From TrEMBL:
It comes from Saccharopolyspora montiporae. SUPFAM superfamilies: Leukotriene A4 hydrolase N-terminal domain, Metalloproteases ('zincins'), catalytic domain. It catalyses: Release of an N-terminal amino acid, Xaa-|-Yaa- from a peptide, amide or arylamide. Xaa is preferably Ala, but may be most amino acids including Pro (slow action). When a terminal hydrophobic residue is followed by a prolyl residue, the two may be released as an intact Xaa-Pro dipeptide. It comes from the Bacteria. Its cofactor is Zn(2+). Belongs to the peptidase M1 family. This is Aminopeptidase N. The lineage of its organism: Bacteria, Bacillati, Actinomycetota, Actinomycetes, Pseudonocardiales.
Length: 489
């Protein structure tokens, strides 16, 4: 404290009101996530990983702009640092769980460019940071894949979707081991017994959507949709699931063409997918390259999950949630994209799927007690966020019309590209674009813990369609299996 005061007194007048950055970015569900006082522009993550020991050694450089005059700031990081430098000078630091507080030698002035360099070496699977480690160690390597957080177990940063940045990720591994990450593979080189894989993302990316997969993978690079590079990777340990996994993920370019016809221009610079053989019990929409558990393909090809994760490239990745309570903007629209794909493939129309789910859950079912617009931290990935969330989108289509819904969705993803949005902002846009007052609709579907009643305000035909006595559309079985796994985030 004495050192901080001395710096402030001796600094120019600009720093007179300097102070520490907040240890959280202001998320209602996760107050400790993210940090205040600076915005990150770029991460340079340079790693060396030894699979046999699960030993990760790294140097991460964070390029940031202070948004206030800073005497100290926080980074979200679970691994123990060996040194921290700020603007090339040694900085003091303390660590409590996943909060790394850094005190530089000089006050960081608002609007300047600052670099934070953190060196570290640890076994990520053994570091809990005060909570369960999301790092996944596998028989042939590791997976840095998780939601709502993972980055703190492999690089320090501002861990909240509200602060997105570009990435360079370089990983050295024993020769013969592969590394897959986001964006484009800019270089792969071998020196001695080590091979270094370099990956780059040029579109702003949330920290939890940056990923790394290390292991034995069959990697293919080809031209995908829109003339982009498409990179797919399949674990060599998939066995009999290799075929159905490829039959699903290799259709990614076709699926992206379909989605772009609905949502507008594909918003990121690369595409593809990765299927692990072990460790994952879910799929995640890592930016440019979703990752999939092999469990999705146990019953055969599953294009629905590929549609879901790639719809997130628009809803979730390019347009990220403002707070984690806004999760409906991610999962409701990605789930509804599956319904539209089912309609496209002839396995059930969106209305048939709506009718099925509306009839499946009686009014006293717990499904209706979860409000997708504000589900609560404990219900962040509840089935209601996915299925009731998709029903809300379809009901909105019934209320305003298919053309109007497409107009609202395209306006949303265009105006919010590479930024963040809230459910409230989406509602405002829907009302602005349609010229209609939609409070009763959104209250019923997103904020009322009860089954919406049929009527023109809710988008449910009167009398309500009763699908209980009709066979479920063919798509339902795959949708239910897929969402059961997706709820495991």
């Amino acid at each position: 404290m004495a050192a901080s005061c001395a710096v402030a007194v001796g600094a120019p007048a600009l720093a007179a009101d300097a102070g520490p950055g907040a240890p959280g970015i202001g998320d209602e569900y996760f107050p400790g996530y993210g940090n205040g006082g600076y915005d990150v522009g770029h991460y340079d993550v340079q790693l060396r990983y030894q699979p046999d020991e699960d030993r990760l050694t790294g140097t991460t450089t964070v390029v940031a702009e202070p948004t206030q005059d800073l005497t100290s700031f926080h980074l979200d990081f679970a691994l123990p640092p060996s040194s921290v430098k700020v603007n090339g000078r040694d900085a003091e630091f303390t660590q409590d769980g996943t909060e790394l507080q850094v005190t530089p030698q000089d006050v960081l002035q608002a609007g300047s460019t600052a670099t934070f360099v953190v060196e570290y070496s640890a076994v990520p699977s053994e570091e809990d940071g005060g909570e369960t480690s999301p790092w996944i160690r596998t028989g042939d390597g590791a997976l840095a894949v998780g939601q709502p957080r993972i980055s703190a177990w492999w690089f320090p940063g501002n861990d909240h979707p509200r602060d997105k940045a570009t990435f360079d990720i370089s990983v050295a591994v024993p020769d013969g081991t592969q590394v897959v990450s986001n964006g484009v593979n800019t270089d792969t080189s071998t020196i001695g017994d080590w091979t270094t894989w370099k990956w780059r993302t040029t579109e702003p990316t949330a920290t939890y959507l940056a990923f790394m997969a290390v292991g034995d993978y069959d990697i293919s690079t080809r031209e995908g949709a829109f003339g982009q590079q498409s990179i797919t990777a399949y674990s060599t340990g998939l066995g009999e699931l290799d075929g159905p996994a490829r039959a699903s993920v290799e259709r990614t370019p076709e699926i992206l063409e379909f989605l772009s016809g609905l949502l507008g221009e594909y918003p990121v610079e690369s595409q593809g997918g990765l299927v692990a053989a072990e460790g994952l019990s879910f799929a995640l929409e890592n930016q440019t390259r979703p990752t999939y558990s092999p469990a999705f393909f146990r019953s055969g090809a599953n294009t629905g999950v590929v549609v879901h994760e790639n719809a997130h490239q628009w809803f979730g990745d390019s347009v990220s949630l403002d707070q984690w309570r806004d999760i409906w903007l991610n999962e409701g629209f990605a789930s509804y994209a599956e319904w539209l794909w089912s309609e496209h493939e002839g396995t059930g129309t969106a209305q048939e799927l709506f009718d099925h789910y509306y009839a499946e859950y009686p009014p006293d079912h717990s499904f209706w007690t979860i409000t997708p617009g504000d589900p609560g931290r404990e219900n962040l990935f509840d089935e209601a966020v996915y299925d009731r969330g998709a029903m809300a989108v379809h009901a909105l289509r019934n209320v305003i019309g298919a053309d109007a819904l497409r107009d609202v969705v395209r306006a949303w993803v265009h105006s919010k590209r590479n930024s963040n949005g809230s459910v409230g902002e989406f509602i405002d846009l829907a009302e602005q674009r349609t010229g209609r007052q939609l409070d009763r609709f959104f209250d019923a579907w997103l904020y009322t813990p009860a089954k919406p009643e049929p009527g023109p305000d809710t988008g449910i035909p009167v009398p309500a369609r009763d699908a209980a006595d009709r066979p479920a559309p063919p798509a339902v079985a795959q949708l239910d299996r897929t969402h059961e796994l997706l709820h495991g985030h």
